[in-house]
Amino acid sequence: MGFIHKTYGFTMLPLILFMFVIVGLLSAGYMMLGPKVQLGKTVETKAGLEKAADAIISWSAANGRLPDTVLPATNPTYFLNIIPSQTDSWGRPFVYLYENTLANQASGGICGRTTTSYPAGCTDETTCNAFILISGGEDQTVNSVPATSQSFPATITLDNRDLTRTVTLAELKNRAGCYGSTQGRLKILNNELPKGCSGTAYSATIFAGGGVPPYPTYTITGLAGTGLSALGANITGTPITTGSFPVSVQVTDSHTPTATTVQKNLTLTVNSCGAPLPTPTAAWNFNEGAGNTIGSGSTLGTITGTANWVARGGGYALLLNGTNNYIYFNDINYFNIGTGNVTLSAWVNFSGTPAQHWCDSATGTDMAIGAIAGKGFLYPAIGYGMYVTQTRPCPSCTSCSGAWSNYKVAFQLRNPANSDIHSVYSDSVIAGGSWAHVVAVLDRNASPATDQIKLYINNVKQTDASNDYQYTSPTALNFDNTFKFTIGARHDGGSGYGFPYWGYIDDVQLYKAALTDAQISALYTTGLNP
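The structure assignment produced for this chain is given below.
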């Protein structure tokens, strides 16, 4: 038994040595693997910082501002709700430092700013930072100051033990599209100045956008010797000479600490236009640019549906949808013309497909009519007005699938008995997608009688009478009625409106007078045709 016991004691020694070797190998493997694990987490966290920066830039581009750190955490602008992962690979939250003015659209938002507060004293977009993302890295401690998410404080110290992703203002604005023509950098919106007529009162307004409003300083030079002067954003006066004059315009915004200034060169053209234009009875330039009304007093109009304002020539125009967009005016008597004369003028740009149309089974023609402007016209109303038409073939009125023709414009008068109709049409079709100036004139004193109703397209009098429709001269007819004056539709006398117009419209004017050819030329040359 003793011999056997001694044999067991002898065989345990190799086993113990073997176990020591295994433990040593495991310890060495762990010491080799540990740094690789940390390196993997570092690479993963750097990728996470990049993804977080991309998410913040994408959100900022869509919202015109940076996210913030304003609590509660459920706030939709809170940055942790925007980035794809809130923590680094060690499970520690990212720290977000940002320029506060970039998180406030009232301070210019992203595209309106040219500097930030960090680094202190930075002077341009490439050296100024928009935001910084920080991870504590391998030691899982943020060593930079500050170590918590907030807007840029007075002092920032970044520690090289941390992992950081810094986004400059230039990178943010470039990736957010601020350098495109439609974004929020300070700019002068005018592409041209309205043309003027020598000896006729003139006015123009400079429009600015983007940057940090308001715009306290407008500097306009180049008006010496023209008879015009500038005050703020407005150019006014009566031109005393003809010619083309280079005009320099500068606008300054309210950017702090240093205001931003932009400059643009425009040309002022003054023509010799003959007889001066009379004062219009009503004129709407549509430069309100917002809201659902135009004009004031008796010329106050209400826009139905959504007002689709679009930029045009430094101001605005309206896009009417052909369904429920039109403008009506409640002062019925103000727009009556009785037995007097009238001139209607408008800039139009026909666009899209008519929403309302009907088929004439006798001719197999599908027709759409859109009212441009007027007061009681088109069946069964009574009065005066301009409209646009489109047609397409529609055999038997059962297969109306052909292409719509280009556009024709007409001016129509109806007498109080609704039995005497007078219409004059444009000589040829008008292509859609471009601006055209249309003018309709009732001149009861003109001779011959067929010249009493006239239509002008882009300053060209329409003379082809083959499509015109006149029974007798309208010399003695009274066109007073109880319909409302409308733009973009025709009032039916009750609560309904028909013949909706489709496309853009701008600068509508009404004169209770018959403008001459020279005055219509002046009206055309002083208008804006982008």
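Interim note for the steering committee: The chain is about 15% helix and 30% strand. Residues 2-63 form the longest helix (62 residues).
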